[in-house]
Amino acid sequence: MSATEKPTAREADTLDGRELSPAVVILSSVVGGISLTVGALLAVASLTGHAAGAWVSPEALSPGLVGAAMAGVAPALFTIGRARVWEEVRSLVLPLVTVLVGLFTVTLLNGGALQAVHGGPLFLALFSLGWVATLGLLALAAVVCLAAQYRRPAPAPGVERLRVAPLPGWSKPLLAVLGSGWLGIGAGLLAFPAFWGPLVPWTVNRADAQGLGVWALSLGVGVLASLVEDDLARIRPALTAVPAVALATAVVLAVHARTVDWTSGPGASLLALVTGLLATGVSGRRLLTRAEAAPESPPAAGRRSLGSGSGPRPGR
User: Fold this and answer.
1) CA–CA separation, 252 vs 71, rounded Å?
2) pLDDT tens digits, residue range 55-97?
3) SS3 19
4) Residue 185 in contact with residue 213, Cβ under 8 Å?
5) Contact at 8 Å (CB) between 35 and 218?
6) How far apart are CA 106 and CA 103, in angstroms?
7) How far is the C-alpha of 259 from the C-alpha of 262, rounded, in Å?
8) In the beta sheet, which residues pair with residue 19?
């Protein structure tokens, strides 16, 4: 495009980012529907004292937390289709891919603990088989969709991305601590379940520890990705997911409060991390609403117009 040509409406709409691939939108909608249904099943079963996960668990709390996270993130996945560009959804899609690939890998690594292999009730045995098959298809689809997304043309070199609502300076250290906390815990549970599993403030087995580790790792990826974006408008779907996941998790933890050792360091840390997620989501939504309601600064608009004009400049 030459300097005198005006971009088309489609080009102008995606000038500051990659065009969002339809494959990512379809994947998110499908995963959202499945997550809402399966997550609600796991969470409700846990609330009634039943461990209804794909693998055998010593307590109902762990599968309940997995279900709460699945159900909590589902509404945000349905909003991805409203985004203009990839950069507006990657802080949610990248954690989504992490969960799908991670949970499928953990399920295979702990195949001996599956309800179907362990000889669980018929419904749970069939559920575990469906869990493996569905996760396998979704994990493969997630990798393919992500590859298709990055094949989309990137913005032209030198095009500066405009920030609608930059993150406040005071929030960045807090987000770094929150994201690093979730990321570190998730990586530890996933890679070294024999060491980190006993530190969980309730009873877990290897499959539970690694399954929870995948979700913790994805939360860390999402929070740190939001910090990198440095624009509340670019993390709108993530801001929808974070408080919903925190609230759903809090409900399950509250019902099973007696089984959690809250006086231990891990128990206090878990409480702080969940509270941090909720505070991040609520404050982020308020700041974004305030930024979008504020009128555009006329001086800034003027500088943008002068910078792009072709007329003579002073002093030349």
Assistant:
1) 12
2) 999 999 999 999 999 999 999 999 999 998 999 999 999 999 9
3) strand
4) yes
5) no
6) 5
7) 9
8) 85
